[in-house]
Design a protein that fits this description.
It is built from 18 helices and five strands. The chain has 398 residues and is mostly helical. It is elongated, with a radius of gyration of 28 Å.
Length: 398
């Protein structure tokens, strides 16, 4: 690594890719005229909370602006312009930092229009181009499909394609609410966070898939299994790999694989099941699925389990290199890559209306625990053995 004044480290002697540095020097690079890394500012602004709180970062930018804005020196004017551009970059993604907006407004009010920075800040905050929140164009009162009558819906009442659409739009709404601070502050014990809601939905959908099968009556159980396979196929056809993987996991559970109705599936459903197994093959760390994810274009939803795996790896990276006492800027670069994956999901646009009746069905579905599903299957198999023994006994008496 190339070292600059023992305060900034670069990836190579002839490169401009920063890998570490002291905080003040990293901030100075943001408005340095001889620094050429085009992605540096975007990476710093997006992940700055890893190395400095937003209020302190804002104040540092303000102090640089104040020190140079009234100077006639050409270098000072250049620095002023770069700080203004930095703040504009920040404000363009203001919807990603909702907790910071009150701070911006309070500062603008405190300074007033009598100061240069106050006028600039007020103008930026009242700009017609400022986006304070992510705009979701979703109709929340979609029309119930004509084949469904308003009644208490059951799983077999709803076509797999319609269920898949409602599951997907619900997932998309959760993904769209995630912001960079959620990733940086993620805590698996916080059940109210949108990330954890997505993580919890994995097990919920997986258990629901098994529950619908084991709680159904024997005569319709093959139809329920077939529809659940078709639902998984339809969800994946929408490139909702998040819920697709969850449903597939439920169908692959040891208990559900024992349910004696797989042999009644028709050829068309078996072909779909085979394709699902090929895509979700665990060999090579889900290499087939990862390949499809890499080639997929928006709209798509990446499995939260994959994103959380990458987030855990990111959190294991040190904040500071102990041997040099420099901040690890590679952590911010890695965070930018992870956020790009989340944003690829949140910026996907699914042209789907929310249908309240189907949403209510999904919200209030019965979900058994793994133990309950195991018990139901054991009872089912024991009853089958009992009937077989009884049949053999009756045959022997004849």
């Amino acid at each position: 690594m190339r070292v600059l004044s023992n305060s900034v480290q670069y990836e190579s002697d002839d490169g401009d890719i920063v890998v570490a540095g002291h905080l003040n020097d990293l901030i100075e690079l943001l408005y340095s005229h001889n620094f050429l890394d085009p992605s540096y500012c975007d990476i710093f602004i997006l992940g700055h909370q890893y190395i400095i709180d937003s209020d302190s970062f804002f104040r540092k930018l303000k102090s640089v602006y104040d020190a140079n804005c009234d100077s006639s020196d050409s270098e000072a004017k250049l620095i002023t312009m770069r700080v203004v551009n930095l703040f504009k970059k920040w404000m363009k993604i203001a919807y990603l930092f909702p907790d910071m907006l009150p701070m911006f407004f309070d500062c603008a009010n405190d300074l007033g229009v009598g100061s240069t920075w106050g006028r600039f800040l007020t103008k930026s905050l009242t700009s017609s181009g400022l986006t304070l929140e992510r705009k979701l164009q979703i109709n929340e009162n979609g029309i119930l499909p004509s084949y469904l009558k308003k009644k208490e819906l059951e799983f077999l009442d709803i076509e797999p394609i319609d269920l898949a659409r409602q599951i997907t739009i619900s997932d998309y709404i959760l993904y769209s609410k995630i912001n960079p601070s959620d990733l940086i502050e993620y805590n698996s014990n916080d059940s109210e966070s949108n990330i954890q809601k997505l993580a919890d939905s994995v097990k919920h959908l997986s258990l629901w898939a098994g529950t619908e099968i084991v709680r159904s009556k024997k005569k319709v159980r093959p139809a329920v299994l077939s529809n659940m396979i078709c639902l998984t196929h339809e969800v994946l056809a929408m490139q909702n790999y998040h819920s697709g993987l969850s449903l597939f996991s439920g169908l692959c559970s040891t208990a559900i694989q024992k349910v004696p109705c797989w042999k009644y599936l028709n050829k068309k459903t078996l072909i779909k099941w085979k394709r699902l197994n090929e895509l979700m093959d665990v060999s090579g760390n889900f290499s087939a699925l990862r390949k499809e994810l890499n080639n997929a274009q928006a709209p798509l939803l990446i499995p939260i389990s994959i994103l959380l795996h990458d987030l855990n790896l990111l959190n294991e990276m040190p904040y500071i290199y102990e041997d040099t006492d420099l901040l690890n800027f590679c952590k911010l670069r890695t965070f930018k890559g992870l956020w790009d994956s989340f944003e690829k999901c949140s910026e996907s646009h699914y042209d789907i209306d929310l249908i309240p009746d189907i949403q209510d069905f999904l919200k209030y579905v019965v979900v058994f625990s793994e133990e309950e599903i195991d018990i139901k299957v054991d009872i089912m198999l024991a009853e089958r053995v009992r009937k077989r023994k009884k049949s053999l006994f009756n045959s022997s008496k004849r």
